[in-house]
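Structure ticket #2291
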Amino acid sequence: MPFGEFQYNLDDKGRVIVPPTFRDFLADGVVLTRGFEGCLYVYPKVTWHKIEAVLKDLPLVDGESRALVRFLYSGASPATMDATSRITLNNTLRRFAGIDHEVIFAGAPNRLEIWNEALWLSTITDLQNAPPAPERLMELVG
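Resolution: structure written out below.
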């Protein structure tokens, strides 16, 4: 699974180099979509297909399910790494995440996250200043 944090720059055409650490993880294709907290999620295609199957099975009559489908699915965009290991972030996703130049790639289980650098630093600072309670962390990890 990918982990680590890397800073890169977006070029004038909306392309960004995928850090070497993450290239094998994304080698078979990529799906980008909106993420929570204002970042973008980057899934390998195989993982996205699993998420897509779950989204398809959510009940249409449930408002929260419809909202989640809209949020993730309507923002989804396939991408492929080019010969120089770049992926293109489309305008809609760049606008959503406030990405215009500096980006942070952050590893997460089963996905990558791409952040506007200032938002990433603010988010990490907030976590540093008010980390989750140890009891809550133990509940999450079992």
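Closing remark: The two ends are 20 Å apart (CA to CA).
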